[in-house]
Structures are given as C-alpha cells and as structure tokens.
Amino acid sequence: MTALDDLAASYSGEFARLDPCQAAMMGIAGEEAALTDYGPGGWAARAGLARRTLAALAGVPVDGERDRIAARVLRERLEVELALDGAGIPDADVNVVDGPLQRLRQAVELLDQGERTRWPDVTARLRGIPAALAGHRESLAAARREGRVAARRQIAGTAGQCAETARYFGELAGRCPDGAPRREAERAARDAGAALTAFAAFLTGELLPYAPERDAVGRDRYALEVRRHLGAELDLAETYAWGWEELARIEREMAQLAGEILPGEPLPAVFAALDADPAHQVRGAEAFRRHLQELADRAVDELDGTHFDIPPALRRIECRIPPTGAGGIYYLAPTEDLSRPGQVWWTVPGPDAVIPTWTVPATMYHEGVPGHHLQLGGTVLNPALTRFQRVASELHVGHAEGWGLYAERLMAELGYFRHPAHRLGALASGQQLRAARVVLDIGLHLELEIPRGTGFHEGERWTRELGREFLGSRVPEGGAYLDFEIDRYLGLPGQALAYKVGERVWLEGRRAQRRAKGAAFDPKAFHRDALALGPMGLDLLAAELARL
C-alpha cells in the first residue's frame, strides 16, 4: 500500500457515501440502504470532494509505473468532474436514460435479487425516494432561475417514465414477505409513487414551459461531454468523416451476407425474414433468459484456458430480465465483496413475447465473455490496482464499450459466428449501429451538414426526424426502439461515440503491438496485459498500450 492507495481508497469510500446511486452501479459495497442527495447541497458536497482530492493528489508521491498510471487515471476523472460542475451541467440534468430519476430507479432495481433480496434495504431506499426527488426538484428549480434547463424532449420523456417507475415500486413491495415487512414496504412504495406523481407534475408544469426546443448542445458542451465519456479530445470533423467511411464499409459486408441468406432481397426484407424464422426465435422472457445463460456459459467454457485465463470467481455470469420496461441491455460488474455476481440485464417487450435471437450472440459476447464480464469483472478482482481503479469502470465508458465492441469482432475472428444470420446480426446490431451512432451523435449535436455522396438527404442539416429516418433504414428494430435510441443520443451527448471510437483505440493498439513484435506477438498475452492496465480514458489508453 502506498500513499496513493490510501488517497484512492479514501476518495472511493467518501464518493460512495455522497453518491450511493452511482456507487451501486459501480459495485461499491456498504451504502445499500442509502440514496444520493440530488439537492444543491449534495452537488456541492461532491464537487468539494473532487476539489479536495485533486489538491491532495498533487502532493502525493508517485512510486513506479503502477502509481504513475493510477495517479493519471484519478486526476483525469477529478478534472472532468470539476469541469462539468464548473459548466453548470450536473445539477440541471434531465435525460431519458441516465439522469437522477433513472439512477434512483436503478438503485432500487439493483436490490431486486429474487431470493437474495435484502428487504430492509429495499424499504429504506423506497422511503428515501420522496426526499431524493425533492432535492432533485430543488436543484432543477434553482438551475431554471439561472437559465439552465434541459431540452423539452428530455423533460417530457422523463416525466412519462415516472408512472412506470411507480408501478414497479408497488409491484416490488408486493413481493416482500408477508407481515410487518410487507406493510412497511408497501407504505414506502405508496409514498414513493405519490412523490413520483408530484415530480412528473413539476417537470411538465413548472420546468417544461422554460425548456428549449433545441436538442443539440453545441460544440463547446459536446467537447466537454466527449471528455466525460471517452476521456479523449477528438478531432470531430475527422471522426465524423471516419464514421461515414466505417458505415459504408460495414454496409457493403452486410449486403454480401444478406445475399447469402436471401439472394436478391433487400436488407429490410432479410431482417424481417430472420425475425419471423422460428429457428431464430425464443418465446417468453424466462425461456429467453435461459437462452442467454446458455450462450454465456458456453463462451466461458470454451474460451477459458485457450484464448483467456478466466478467474474462478468470473466463471459464472448471471443473466437477468429487468422487471421494468425501460433499461435496454447492460452489464453490471460484481460488487467488491462479490455478494453480487457479474450480471447481464436484458430488457424484453413482455413476459410472453416472441423474441428474435439472430442478433443475440454478438451482444452476449459484448456484455459477457470476452466482453464486459471478463474486462470489468477482472478489474474488480485485480489486486494490483488501487481501489478507485477497481471500481471506476462505470466512469470510463470509452474504455469499457470500446472493449465490448472489440470483443464482438474478436469472436468473429475466432470463428464463433458460424451461421450467416449470426454474422449478419453481429454487423447489424454491433458494427453498423455503432458506426451510425458516430455519424448521428456528432451530426445531431453539432447540427452538421449531411455530406454529398451518402445518398441520404445530401446537403441538409441533421434534425431528430432525419436521425430517426436514417437509423430506421439501418437497424432491424423499429418504433419505440428508434425513438429511444435517438432520444438517448440527444440526452447523453458524446456517449454514443464510445463504442466505435473505443474499439478503434483497442484495434490500433493491437496492430501496433503486432507490428512491433512480429512473429513473437501473442494475442493472449496482449489481452491479459492490456486489461491489467485497468480502466482509463481513451487518450491515456492509447499511450499505455503503446508502452506494453
């Protein structure tokens, strides 16, 4: 243990105390009954912690390569947090994917662990919902008085999520064991539901009239958000052009595969045929969960000892179907104490839905092994990292999602997509979607012109409607999915770049290693050593991969 270890551990513990909702996502144990204070005092306390820690870091001795990297990782995050605070972004945040409302819901949802559910913690968090929403409301009202208000679309969408969240809280409390514990949980859920109804009324009645119609955040805010999510300073013009080039390359490959599956048919017809093919369907949420579990278990069995060495504690991935209709697909790393295993959460349309599976293998490799479960789970178990590094993967989106997409491509290279439909699924749900996100995210927020030669509204400037049309012509899903995706990009500027831009850094790092070592290059050793670096921003990752 060094002085840097002490500082990182102290910061992580105090961070968890001040932000239990984020800590729950990060896997930091010890704050399971608490919720984050989203009031003005809570935001000020978290900024104060970052400021004090950054000042202390300047005086901590750095001993060796390990401390050098750890200090840079911690400094990067602290500086980003303070830059966001200085720009007046966090306390005014309302978005449909990852704002305070969604984090409060997730903080309760993460405790919903079936037979492992600790009901006193559930009830405590439900009791805390009214105060947490009151604090959030106070911050939003103060920001509004200063002219800082989120876009109308994000506010209206968030208000619409309140009723579903209240229904889930009531359903969860109804599963509490009989007797006094259930009565307490149901009372807390009713109070939480009333608070959610009042909060929705505040959003629509008191905040929405002041909200701007414009969804784009502009170049300055966007550059700061790219720093937050990617840990990188990007040439946005080059990245936008590269996104178009990648999209064209991937679509040529998709057209070739579609011709193998249904010769002469356009891609939408091939997607529809695969969706309707009983060979690529599972009926019912529980059957689908078992399907996911089988894919996850098989990947662990086949990759362990061959392409990767998987620690015993990571040989099990728990596949879960979330109880609410919102949430998408995501991975949660094991908690520090391993009381929560690594989990893949996969939202489905309903308990009896017929679910197409031809795109599923690629996504499971992304979320499970060799993707996030190997990467983030291995980080939690790595004793060579500081405590902050072990729990910080959730904060380094470019590192995490870049590896996840790289893992999909790696499995293609290893021959795991034997069926043409699964190869097409990997391109459609992975590569094509993520390349389209690069184009859309930059284009929408910078309101760029659509280039000549693309065949899509050439010369026009991006709008939400054009973004939805563009995405709708390129993904198998439709309707609500398209609305969710576009509003996600608009509400979380920069985050959608993390996948392809992050993958680009991982691929370039591997190519550089292969060139430098020639015949001595060992992919297994490269992956082991690269993941052992721990989570970090992409600019730092590129530099450290070059030093391996």
Q: How is this structure best described in words?
A:
The structure is a single chain. With 548 residues, the protein is mostly helical. The protein folds into 2 domains: 3-213, no CATH class; 224-499, no CATH class. It is built from 22 helices and 5 strands. The strands form 2 sheets. Strands 2-4-3 form a 3-stranded mixed β-sheet, with helices on one face. Strands 1-5 form a two-stranded antiparallel sheet. It starts with a helix and ends with a helix. The mean pLDDT is 95.
Strand arrangement within the widest β-sheet reads 2-4-3
Structural class: mainly alpha
In DSSP terms (H or I, runs of 4 or more residues), the helix count works out at 22
Backbone CA Rg: 23 Å
Poorly predicted regions: none
* Number of beta strands: 5
Largest sheet: 3 strands, mixed
Mean pLDDT: 95
Task: List the main descriptive attributes of the protein structure presented here.
two-stranded antiparallel sheet; mainly alpha; single chain; globular; 548 residues
Condensed summary:
The protein has about 550 residues and is mainly α.
